[in-house]
Amino acid sequence: MAKQTPKKHQSPFRMSCRELVVRPEDKKEVPVIREVIREAFAPMPFSTGQEWQLVEKIRQSSGYLPSLALVALCDGVLVGQSMISLLEIEDKKKPHNALVLGPVSVLPDFQRRGIGQELIRIGIAAAKRMPLPVMVVVGDLAYYSRFGFEPAVPRSIHMPFGFDEEDYLQVLELKKGALKGVQGVIKFPPSFFDEKGDLL
Ligand SMILES: CC(C)(COP(=O)(O)OP(=O)(O)OC[C@H]1O[C@@H](n2cnc3c(N)ncnc32)[C@H](O)[C@@H]1OP(=O)(O)O)[C@@H](O)C(=O)NCCC(=O)NCCS
What we know:
Layout: E1 9-10, E2 20-24, H1 30-41, H2 51-59, E3 64-74, E4 77-91, E5 94-106, H3 115-127, E6 134-138, H4 141-144, E7 150-151, E8 157-158, H5 165-168, E9 169-173, E10 184-187
Parallel strand pairs: 5-6, 8-10
Antiparallel strand pairs: 1-2, 2-3, 3-4, 4-5, 4-10, 6-9, 7-9
The structure holds coenzyme A (COA).
């Protein structure tokens, strides 16, 4: 698959950051990214505390797409990250390649300034240049609908195990009409699980 690098992006959100740059992560930023994820998720009641491990396992896996693993720098300081990686949606043993968005993190002091939205919008724009039909996300529709995500279950895309999928599984069509050809059960790659078999 052709891997493309999104252009360095200058954001219109200048009220808080004089300069917001969103670009693919650099390997030497891994320790800082780990801390950003930890701090962003720490106050969240649903957090497993392991989201940083998920990102690190995805990075070591064949589903890692370097051009879609983004960081946000506010005046040169790394304050956010987003990960888009590969998974499959399996339909009666026929696999469809797809993308999954997440985790996304912004340091608490920098939240609600549009940084999360910039990371996601730029990631989606880059993903649309890839030959893949859809992207899924496990998250709140109230947030993700602004990017074009819609509930996945009415489109016959399901979680592989007991989960409140009607509320939290969302899907985005990356190519016009692509959802017509894709349905089935999400097959998370091994990088998404801890050693006990629970989702990270
Ligand atoms: C979710 C997150 C990445 C958003 O980043 P951000 O920079 O604060 O987001 P933005 O400033 O671009 O957008 C803020 C908007 O998102 C909304 N929002 C943020 N998190 C939300 C959530 N979980 N559900 C619904 N809305 C949410 C805010 O209410 C705000 O809405 P408004 O613009 O209508 O007021 C950030 O809040 C974060 O790191 N949270 C902790 C980790 C997490 O929950 N990640 C998402 C799951 S992977």
